[in-house]
Amino acid sequence: MRTRYFLIVCLSVCLSAGCHGPKPAVGPPTMAVVGIPKPTLLPPPDLSPYAGEFYFGDGLGVNCSLKLTKEGNASFQWHGCEGLYDKNQGTYTYENDQIVLHLTAPNTRDGFQGTPTRFYPVQWGPRLYLIADEQMLGFCSRVAMGWIPDEDRHGFYYLRGKDNENPVRGEPSVPALFQPVLKQPFTATITSMKKGGPILIDRGRRQGIFPAQWDPKLGIHVT
């Protein structure tokens, strides 16, 4: 009886363990490796044409400097009668015909502090100006009315280095968007004026002029 029981146990264990020979080894599934092309990296834009130290101001309470490097760094300072009023720094890029500042500290434009952050680089003969986007229409209107800057470095448009020592020649190079204003001056009637706010005029797109608002402090604003 003991021998028969032992045989039955051994047989049941063998069957449960699958005594049919060793199972073939199964490895991980084979996957075809498809090469993924690396993205083509475009070279960074050449910023050297815009590098330099720019200045605008009246020589009194407004003396603003903006330094741009060919590596894309930017630094801003505002000096006045009582010393340093404001400063900031960061980087800049060239986007859609504009120099765009990317400042690291908050840029609050109030009183004697803050700076515009978008500028149109305008080449006028040997001179390079940086015109804030909010001043561009005013700049073009002044040129259309016959304004020609002299050798005085003071003024309310950023001018590079000692470019003021070189007289302007021909017309300033402005984007096509502003060519109509640069080519043809216009007159307008003030329709609305609020204290401390913009002044509305009655000329706009129907007359072939941009719909605009004129701010006596900053120039003409496209709306």
Strands, helices and their partners?
Elements: H1 2-16, E1 52-57, E2 63-68, E3 73-80, E4 83-95, E5 98-103, E6 118-124, E7 127-132, H2 136-144, E8 155-160, H3 179-183, E9 190-193, E10 199-201, E11 212-215, E12 219-222
Antiparallel strand pairs: 1-2, 1-8, 2-3, 3-4, 4-5, 5-6, 6-7, 7-8, 9-10, 10-11, 11-12
Protein architecture, described:
This protein is mainly beta. It has a domain at 51-133 and 149-174: Lipocalin (Beta Barrel), CATH 2.40.128.360. The chain has three helices and twelve strands, in the order H-E-E-E-E-E-E-E-H-E-H-E-E-E-E. It has helices spanning 2-16, 136-144, 179-183, and strands at 52-57, 63-68, 73-80, 83-95, 98-103, 118-124, 127-132, 155-160, 190-193, 199-201, 212-215, 219-222. The strands form two sheets. Strands 1-2-3-4-5-6-7-8 form an eight-stranded antiparallel beta barrel. A four-stranded antiparallel sheet has the order 9-10-11-12. A hairpin with a 3-residue loop joins strand 11 and strand 12. The longest helix has 15 residues, at 2-16. It is globular. It starts with a helix and ends with a strand. Residues 1-19 and 211-223 have low confidence and may be disordered.
